[in-house]
Design the sequence.
């Protein structure tokens, strides 16, 4: 993906969120309370609701963005810039550079692969 198609595809916070949600759906969402894997999507809250115990999981929770206040768009731009470096990053390097936990760096790599 080059910078033109990137900006065309991810031109707003909502388009980034929608893309993030579709990728998260592919990976699946596991309820943190009861480990159930089926959820309803509550668009007005950008959250999943467990079909079993009704506990809610926000789109960000359990991902690299969980403890971040940065917008999805900033994350996408960062990932895009990272993906443009020809050098390539190991997951260890990303983990170190961004100060991430292991599962978060796996997410970061996944995002780079998508972009
Ligand atoms: Zn549940």
Sequence:
């Amino acid at each position: 993906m080059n910078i033109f198609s990137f900006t065309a595809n991810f031109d707003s916070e909502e388009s980034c969120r929608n893309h993030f949600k579709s990728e998260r759906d592919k990976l699946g969402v596991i309820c943190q309370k009861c480990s159930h894997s089926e959820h309803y999507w509550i668009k007005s809250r950008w959250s999943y609701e467990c079909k079993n115990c009704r506990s809610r999981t926000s789109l960000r929770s359990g991902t690299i963005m969980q403890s971040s206040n940065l917008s999805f768009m900033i994350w996408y731009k960062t990932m895009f810039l990272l993906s443009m470096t020809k050098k390539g990053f190991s997951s260890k390097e990303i983990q170190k550079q961004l100060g991430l936990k292991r599962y978060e760096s796996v997410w970061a790599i996944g995002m780079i692969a998508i972009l």
